[in-house]
Specification:
alpha/beta, Aspartate Aminotransferase, domain 2, Aspartate Aminotransferase, domain 1, 2 domains, 7-stranded mixed beta sheet, 5-stranded mixed beta sheet, 12 strands, 41% helix
């Protein structure tokens, strides 16, 4: 059985997003199951020693070991590639495994990386601390300015790493402009698309070369499993990424792949509803507290966001006067919305980045990124928006807002 078996490539290319989310990559066993099968196996057997040798040489297709291929994982990879508009995808154990593999497979000691200043906390640690320890030079810039990106280039710059919308500042990067700058200098563009997913934004269509995801977030959408993915050209997968992941093992478990695979069936519906709720909440909050949301005209990059995103996304960022004390007071006053550092869940979640997701970076780096002690990140879910408004209203009133 091969993922996508029975699916004509030209036909799947004509499918629209919702159809790809439900049917892309599906392969059935002779039993004819309608729900994708879960293959919980570490290895595979062969009809002969010669067949085993041929598979390992790559002379014939077939599974060898679940660190390299697994039928359930490959179905997920095929579906993700279709959704992202990529030639190929590789699933990983976590979002950070995807970010790390994309960067470390691409860069070598002596290379230079330009990175956007606004990144998930662990990504900043990766860029600021781990890569330089391996001899990879890095420069962080305000990637909202293509000129700043261009000015940071050196003769040995090999890649640009961006997150847009950024976590949690919601900075928007002009992917097409940055891609033009990078490609003119022979560099790759890597985009963390976890906040948007391919339902809201498709960076490859805007010129990016590699897209990395934390599928733990909106793609799972239920706070159940950890997962990540990298989407790119088949040449990048075969020649650059596969040699790295083959020997380092950041692979996704079949069970987690199955959970995400099933969740993708409802991804377009969930993202649309959550984004609709987010826009309504942002409009409700804006008169009472400093509110950042790409779908609001007040967002500094609203026009750019609406050019490269289908909607404003599912995340709202708030900035409170009064620092950590005020932020924690608001969190503690919530009755319905959960305090959690996760995002993209069906449940609405709020966190204080300075003491959770970005606690691992210094106060100076947080300030550079635009994260204050009064910053709160609100991940909007699927509840009735009126209930969410009522909860935020009573919490804001308790802190005098």
């Amino acid at each position: 059985m091969k993922p996508g078996a029975g699916q004509d490539r030209e036909e799947t290319a004509r499918w629209r997003t919702a159809t790809r989310a439900v049917r892309g990559g599906t392969a059935r066993t002779p039993h004819g199951e309608t729900s994708e099968a879960l293959f919980l196996t570490s290895g595979f057997s062969y009809e002969s020693a010669a067949e085993a040798a041929a598979r390992f040489r790559g002379d014939v297709t077939g599974m060898t070991y679940s660190r390299l291929q697994n039928p359930t994982v490959e179905m997920l990879e095929h579906r993700l590639a279709l959704l992202e508009g990529a030639e190929a995808a590789r699933a990983t154990a976590t979002g950070m495994a995807a970010m790390t593999a994309a960067l470390m497979a691409t860069l070598s000691a002596g290379d230079h990386l330009v990175a956007g200043r606004a990144l998930f906390g662990s990504c900043r640690v990766l860029v600021d601390t781990i890569l330089p320890r391996l001899g990879i030079l890095t420069t962080t810039v305000d990637a909202r300015s293509p000129d700043a990106v261009e000015a940071a280039f050196r003769p040995n710059t090999r890649a640009v790493f961006l997150e847009t919308p950024a976590n949690p500042t919601l900075d928007i990067v002009d992917i097409a402009a940055v891609a033009a700058i990078a490609h003119a200098r022979g560099a790759l563009v890597i985009v963390d698309n976890a906040f948007a997913t391919p339902i809201v934004q498709r960076p490859l269509e805007l010129g990016a070369d590699i897209v990395a995801h934390s599928a733990t977030k909106l793609m799972d959408g239920g706070g159940r499993v950890l997962a990540g993915a990298i989407c790119a050209s088949q040449a990048f997968m075969t020649d650059t990424l596969l040699p790295f992941v083959r020997h380092t093992g950041p692979n996704l478990s079949p069970f987690n792949a199955w959970v995400v695979l099933k969740a993708l069936e409802t991804l377009p519906l969930r993202v649309a509803r959550a984004a609709e709720n987010a826009l309504a909440l942002a409009r409700f909050l804006e008169p009472r507290v400093q509110t950042l949301y790409p779908g609001l005209p007040s967002h500094p990059q609203h026009a750019l966001a609406m050019r490269q995103m289908a909607n404003g996304g599912t995340i709202i960022t708030l900035h409170l006067d009064g620092g950590t004390r005020a932020a924690h007071a608001l969190l503690d006053a919530l009755r319905l919305i959960d305090i959690s550092n996760n995002l993209g869940d069906a449940k609405t979640l709020m966190t204080h980045p300075a003491t959770t997701t970005h606690h691992s970076v210094s106060a100076e780096v947080r300030a550079e990124m635009g994260i204050t002690d009064g910053t709160l990140r609100l991940s909007v879910g699927l509840e009735d928006v009126e209930d969410l408004m009522e909860d935020l209203d009573q919490a804001l009133r308790k802190i005098g807002r």
